[in-house]
Amino acid sequence: MTRNLVYVSIIASAGALVYGLIVNDFISSAITVALLGVAWIVLFARGLYRFSGFAFAIFIIISLASLWADVSPTLALAGVIFSLLAWDLTRFLQRLRMTDSPQDARRMERAHFARLALVIGMSIFGYIAITRIHVTLTFGSAALLALLGIWGISALVYRLRSHE
Questions:
Q1: 7 inside domain
Q2: For 128-162, what is each residue's pLDDT tens digit?
Q3: pTM to 2 decimals?
Q4: How far apart are CA 103 and CA 87, in angstroms?
Q5: Is residue 113 part of a domain?
Q6: Is residue 85 part of a domain?
Q7: Total structural domains in the chain?
Q8: What's the domain range around 35?
Q9: pLDDT digit of tens for each residue in the chain (164 aa)?
Q10: 91 domain-assigned
Q11: Are 96 and 2 in contact (CB under 8 A)?
């Protein structure tokens, strides 16, 4: 199941970016992104998992660059989320192959999918909140909120890692 989700995530990430680029008449860039997506799928299918980190970084850069090209922020966010999902599931698949018991593998998959759903859900909720709520802050209060956010995310990551 994890392997299939990696394929779906790569296709969805490349598809969101390609669609956004085609809508804004960046046809050559869209073809390049599509070819990168195909290359990621082929290398993953051949078992070259190390390419996932590189492909993830490239898709993040492409998503950021597409924002400058007036691609919809929603499509750029989808590209980021699905490429993050593909990268994470590739790493998880490597760890999953080290388990001997199919029951342990299923239990690990369920737990990992639940954590991924939480992180992706929080990301989407944060995006919706940021685009809908407008608050005027001073620099000091913005810095305090940034530090609080960094602390909260690091605490969440520490807690999730301690439960693995």
A1: yes
A2: 988 888 888 899 988 998 999 899 888 888 887 77
A3: 0.78
A4: 24
A5: no
A6: yes
A7: 1
A8: 2-100
A9: 888 999 999 999 999 999 999 999 899 999 999 999 999 999 999 988 889 899 999 999 999 999 888 889 999 999 999 999 999 999 999 888 888 888 888 888 898 999 889 989 988 898 898 888 888 889 998 899 899 989 988 888 888 777 66
A10: yes
A11: yes
CA distance 49 to 93: 9
Q: Which residues of 134-159 are buried (b: 16+ CB within 10 A; e: fewer)?
A: eeeeeeeeeeeeeeeeeeeeeeeeee
The dihedrals phi and psi of 136, each to the nearest 5 degrees, come to -95, 125
- Quick check: 52 and 39 in contact, CB under 8 A? no
Single-letter amino acid code for the residue at 98:
M
Amino acid, single-letter form, for residue 18: V
DSSP 88-153: HHHHHHHHHTT---HHHHHHHHHHHHHHHHHHHHHHHHHHHHHHH------HHHHHHHHHHHHHHH
